[in-house]
Design goal:
4-stranded mixed β-sheet, binds FE2/S2 (inorganic) cluster, binds flavin mononucleotide, Rossmann fold, Glutaredoxin, binds iron/sulfur cluster, 6-stranded mixed β-sheet
Length: 554
């Protein structure tokens, strides 16, 4: 039997074995029998062991599909999601999810019928007061502190139909770019100073150039809509409300780097985003925007949606490539980087959804005008997601250079009279900022100089009285549940650390043991997950350790 990779080298273009396995499992209401796995393995031409290992990796493939997903992301956890799940599962089938993208209205639930129930409606449902059908979702707040909105231009309302999108100017940047050469587009993006918004702030033009210059005919462009970091939801909102803006960004990427196939990878926790993107792609195909002659030019480009299957780490670009190829979503060793050897070994650009939506603004504005906005190190603006604790949660777009304090006070409205003890910025791999650090400008350069991770821009306000021991346990649980299992410091280290905090945090030796484990994770983990998730936990221990290690070990 061929290995999975070999299979894909000859069969890419067909439906991924992972999707075929998922479809087969969806028609079954129980775990597959050995004989059924054998049959399925034969159908997808894979070894039985591979099929079993794939099913065991992706939670959507082995967990109960009818269960209500109860978000246990940080914002929801702070809003009482654990107690909510305990209560709900007395009456209904539940399972934990890490972020459903409604962190501004936590706690949040997602039913098997794809209904999102949040905030007081979620609490009411648990109390048996309302059914999912009658519960209403409170509205999203989208604001802009930048001189003009770029990424959030169409995020506040539903621009998912082609007609509305076109009337708001979508695809005019594409038409403009198609009048010039791919080289001119590459140069424009390089000169704009655009940096990826997915977390690392890598220069987008450099990434595109490297991919474009790799030899070979076949290249891929992928929009990363996995948005796994609990606390971020801008990508969900863009894919739901501005799907044509995402398509335009991916088309521009494909044109610049010389790709003719695009994929939008979207987590299964975002069912509406998957649906809207699929509908928008079909509309764009019918209108000749996608296909063999994009807007009548000789550029050809197709896009498909690939749904995630319940793995946080699949947001990491190489794990995502493995998932699309039908493998377990484990991180690959780099180099080679995806721009050199990505999907099926071909040069591949993976860009965050928000990064891609910015590209049309760069084309329209011009590289130099775009580069003149923001700071010298970070051009343009960033959408920040304000979660639990803020008086006015929601999305706020700010020009790079705006301080964290301005965001907290002007956009977030503080904590409605309560004291914010610390700010969690950028999700679990982000940073913890005490009030004395809030004058730092939002900028990849200025923040990096101070060791601050902006991540994808989620913000959680930690109020006076926060249980930091519970927060520590929560992050370690997240790490333990979501580790891809490729390396020992992350997969086993997280289990050991979680056990320590859960059972022995009052023991004076716990702190030193924990810090020892963190050191091993940081030094020896393969990817940023194991290397950076310790950051906010270390800061919590440093500043609030006396409230965690209560028996004097702090
Ligand atoms: C554990 C892990 C999870 C990640 N999850 C995401 C994600 O959900 N969305 C995203 O855009 N990038 C995520 N990234 C970063 C991607 O690997 C990649 O750098 C990014 O999509 C590149 O896009 P950009 O250059 O536009 O930022 C993750 C990285 C790691 C290590
Ligand atoms: S650090 Fe964790 S998530 Fe990253 S490769 Fe290792 S086990 Fe996987
Ligand atoms: S919806 Fe719960 S943390 Fe995001």
């Amino acid at each position: 039997m061929k290995s999975l990779r070999r299979y894909w080298e000859t069969h890419h273009g067909e439906v991924s074995p992972l999707l075929r396995i998922r479809d087969r499992l969806q028609s079954k209401s129980h775990p597959l029998e050995a004989s059924e796995i054998r049959e399925l393995a034969g159908q997808v031409a894979l070894p039985e062991a591979t099929v079993k290992s794939v099913i065991s990796y992706y939670s959507d493939l082995h967990e109960d599909r009818e269960a209500i997903r109860v978000c246990q992301g940080t914002s929801c956890m702070l809003a009482g999601a654990e107690e909510l799940q305990q209560e709900l599962q007395k009456r209904k089938n539940c399972k934990a999810a890490y972020c459903l993208g409604y962190c501004d209205r936590s706690p949040t639930l997602l039913t098997a019928q794809d209904e999102v129930i949040c905030s007081q409606q979620a609490t009411a449902l648990v109390a048996g007061e309302k059914t999912p059908a009658t519960a209403e979702t409170p509205p999203l707040s989208v604001r802009c502190l930048a001189p003009e909105p770029t990424v959030t231009k169409r995020a506040g309302a539903n621009y998912s139909s082609l007609e509305k999108a076109r009337s708001a100017g979508v695809y005019s940047a594409l038409a403009q770019a198609l009048q010039s050469s791919p080289e001119e587009l590459l140069s424009l993006v390089e000169r704009s100073g655009e940096r990826g918004r997915g977390g690392a702030g890598f220069p987008t033009g450099t990434k595109w150039r490297r991919c474009a210059e790799c030899p070979g005919e076949t290249r891929y462009a992928i929009a990363n809509g996995d948005e796994g970091d609990p606390g971020s939801f801008i990508d969900r909102v863009l894919m739901e409300n501005d799907p044509h803006g995402v398509i335009e960004g991916l088309l521009l990427c494909g044109y610049g780097v010389g790709a003719s196939q695009g994929i939008v990878f979207i987590r299964s926790e975002y069912p509406t985003a998957i649906k809207r993107m699929q509908e928008a792609i079909a509309e764009a195909q019918d209108a000749g925007i996608l296909g063999s002659s994009v807007l009548g030019s000789n550029f050809s480009f197709e896009i498909s949606v690939f749904p995630g299957m319940g793995s946080y780490v699949c947001g990491e670009e190489t794990a995502m490539l493995n998932a699309i190829e039908g493998l377990r979503g484990e991180v690959r060793i780099k180099p080679p980087y995806p721009v050199e050897a990505g999907l099926y070994g071909k040069p591949t650009v993976v860009n965050n959804v928000e990064t891609l939506v910015n590209i049309s603004a760069i084309v329209k504005k011009g590289a130099e005008a775009y580069a003149a906005t923001g700071t010298a190190y970070s051009s343009g603006s960033k959408a920040l997601c304000l979660n639990h604790g803020f008086a006015s949660p929601g999305i706020v777009e700010v020009e790079f250079g705006t301080t964290v304090r301005q965001v907290i006070e002007e956009a977030g409205g503080g904590a409605g009279g309560k004291t914010i003890e610390a700010l969690l910025l950028g999700g679990p791999m982000g940073s913890l900022l005490l009030p004395e650090e809030w004058d730092v400008p939002i900028c990849y350069g200025a923040m990096a100089e101070r060791g601050i991770q902006l991540g994808h821009g989620g913000m959680v306000a930690l109020l006076e009285g926060t249980d930091y021991s519970a927060l520590l346990e929560h992050w370690l649980r997240f790490m333990m549940d979501e580790s891809c299992g490729k390396c020992v410091p992350c997969s086993l280290g997280s289990q050991k650390a979680w056990n320590l905090v859960r059972n022995q945090s009052a023991d004076p030796k716990c702190r030193a043991q924990l810090e020892g484990l963190f050191e091993v994770m940081e030094e020896a983990s393969l990817c940023a997950f194991g290397q950076y998730i310790t950051g906010p936990m270390r800061q919590i221990i440093e500043h609030f350790g006396d409230r965690i290690f209560t028996a004097g070990g702090g």
